[in-house]
Model the fold of this input.
Amino acid sequence: MKTIVIALPSMPVDSAARAVPSASVSYLKTPGSLHASAEMLHEHLLDIIARRQLSALLQPIIHMGSGDIMGYEGLIRGPSDSALHAPLNLFKVARANELTVQVEHLCRRIVLERFAELALPGKLFLNVSPECLLQRDARHGETLGLIHQIGINPEQVIIELTENQPTYDYELMREAVRHYRDMGFQIAIDDLGEGFSSLRLWSELRPEYVKIDMHFIHGINHDPVKLQFVRSIAQIAEQSDTMVIAEGIETQAELLVLRDLGIDFGQGYHLGRPHASPAAALPAEVVQALRRDGVAVYPQRSGAEKNLASIVRLLHRVPALSPAVTNNEVYEMFMRDPTLQIIPVVDAGMPLGLVSRFDMIDHFARPYQRELYGKKSCTVLMDAKPMIADKDTSLQELSVSVAQADAHHLFNGFIITEHGRYLGMGTGHDLMREITQMQITAARYANPLTQLPGNVPINEHIERLLASGARFWVCYCDLDHFKPFNDVYGYRKGDDLIQLSGTILSGQVDADRDFVGHIGGDDFMILFQSEDWERRCRAMLAQFEGAVARFYSSGDRERGGYLAEDRQGKKVFHSLVSLSLGVIRVEPHQYYSHHQIATAAAEAKKQAKKVHGNSLFIDRRAALG
Done:
């Protein structure tokens, strides 16, 4: 069945946008700007609404596994020669003149009509601001009637909520979302990670889709923090039966990292730009890349320190309630302060529980609940089993506790104590940030000399390659005659030579497909997915041979080596340091662990070292091509 996804931009209006400066030029001659007077812009907007002078663009959203288009996001543009051409300006002026609802309704109609006219495959994401969703006239079937009029099934439409200002009335939001779901619509949350309370919205509304803000997608192949954030979102989504859409994909490297992280769907210029008549299929090269065997190279963070900081860094000093406070008093506290979400209950310094804004309002919304419980102690409606942790608890210990606990603790937060007595609160948002940092620093170790990934990430990447079932090549790299060089020329020059080796190896690989790691000392490992791996290896050998000579005196360079005493005090001639590369090919299901691969690669390296000078040994027993 054909489905539809409409996303209509709802832009925030700041104080500057409400006071648009006057100018003598006509707004029709200043596209993309707001140089006209406020009165002229108001009149122009009314004319746009009356004459339906908006146009729809559609941008594809793709399935990361197959490369098929699963739907489209609908985008709106004003007249091309107008100051209100850009949606940002259009909605700023609409909000300044209290016309947001009318403009959004017109946007919905125009996008729906265009999608139906083109008969495009898949779903249509309809971007709606919470303020319009909660309008009374917007919740009595107007959208449903419009869709039926155009000839679209509501099951094809996804209501995409874009939060441009804080949402506090979650009860009303849940009611509105239930209303739309009853009519057959699905729900999506836009810009996860960017909005005011998107995690809270996710918890409250349980949407079918969440869209990760493009900030976390841009450069994810180079940023381990962004990668860990997206990985965490994917894990939460899997537990909550939510589908994830990554916005703003602009390169193939970003696309392949997201594919490997298990992200369900993607959107961005690399996949397709917004267009009045978008393609019904992806470019062949994008589909080919998605279906290609192998894995993306994840970004690595330098440093091997493990984050053992205590949770005291998460502490917020939050005033607590006494058990003598009634539910009516707590309710009034929540009503006076829309930002207040959780209040701890403490008796004589000992924490008893947490009162949640959501639970309190939910109880009082039911018949007779306020009459029954309003004058009773706040302990009656509190969560009597909150998560409690001593201030000396490590972030690692807390992360384990959270993973094993019920999901609501992540959103309610946790009480921090000192010797059992109440200190303050920690939030789920802060915990997620610190856990992300801890996971990155704990899971990825880097060699301190070259800053290349060490044994842990090398083994992780091998295991990912094995799990993918792809063919790849393993190159074990070692420096010959390195110890006597260290003894004669000193460890400082030895370190410089190791750093040079790492630079040469890294410079000859495809950073998006090939992985370079530093095992330790003068040993390196390269995991190739590039088909031209042999050419790259020979380029490494040639570059190393040309660069190593500068580490020696002119006399040693002319002799091709130098004399040095061995452990018995005898003079022994040593050749210049050379580079040996031993390569094996790994076929699908040939090996089953990184241990087996390390053993085979080490044997190939031994064979390479038997050849004098810079050498490449290829293990032909694996029938390398």
